[in-house]
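hey so i finally got around to running the thing on that chain from the lab meeting. sorry it took forever, my laptop kept dying and i had to restart like 3 times. anyway pasting the input first so we r on the same page abt which one it is
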Amino acid sequence: MSTNFRNQMKEVMSLAWSFVKRNGFSMSEALKVAWANLKLKAVLRKKVVEFFFKKTDGMLRQAFGTLMSDRVPETKGTKKTADNCQVYFDCEKEEWRCFKKCNLVKIVER
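ok and heres what got predicted. didnt touch it at all, straight out
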């Protein structure tokens, strides 16, 4: 088994288990959301992605974000974010944003 695959499986399983413990997900739905988060993180590094997540007030939010180095501004310092948050650069607002990983709803493929 390759090291990369083993690391991905470890990340997915630990993320899914945290969804079960913290958010009351079943293991099945936790694994679906964990895999979607892993996929989103990989695609954000390659291109601008359209995705949907639930905001903390319950509303559904459509976002266009990326983590491509040529699209994001230079950062002066780093701010530590929680492990349960996904950080992305919002291409519409031209600002850094984040959302709780457990609230990811859908990634739109283009």
